[in-house]
Specification:
Layout lengths: L1 H6 L5 H26 L34 H24 L5 H27 L5
Helix pairs in contact: 2-4, 3-4
Length: 133
């Protein structure tokens, strides 16, 4: 898993802790998605995203980087941030195709969850990479 591998590249304890949180979140996310897709009434368990999640758009302007075994922590953050953005856009596209249906709410919430992950990764990039420049 990407976030598990990235822990070895992180240079400080708080970064490792953040990545450990992502591993746990992604595992919960995966099982929750499967559960919600099987039982739509459980959509509320995905959480409430009434508050606006700010998209920092840091990785949006950065060049795509391939994921390789020798990738450094900065490259891993960029790669992961772009993957979270792609997942966000994917879920939004699915939600748009299901206007007026309960499943739309599910995919809208999933999109917001991915945006929240992207925001955390971009904040980490800002804290660890940009502030060291």
């Amino acid at each position: 898993m990407l976030y598990t591998a990235a822990q070895d590249k992180a240079s400080n304890r708080s970064s490792v802790e953040l990545l450990k949180e992502f591993v746990v979140e992604e595992e919960k996310h995966k099982s929750k998605i499967l559960e919600v897709l099987e039982q739509q009434e459980k959509v509320e368990e995905l959480g409430d995203f009434e508050t606006e999640i700010q998209d920092l758009r840091i990785v949006d302007t950065l060049e795509d980087v391939p994921l390789s075994p020798d990738a450094d922590y900065q490259q891993l953050l960029v790669y992961a941030g772009k993957k979270e953005k792609a997942a966000y856009n994917f879920y939004l596209q699915i939600a748009e195709k299901h206007k007026g249906k309960q499943i739309r709410k599910t995919f809208t919430k999933l999109a917001q969850e991915e945006l929240k992950h992207k925001q955390k990764l971009e904040q980490e990039y800002d804290d660890v990479v940009l502030k060291q420049m």
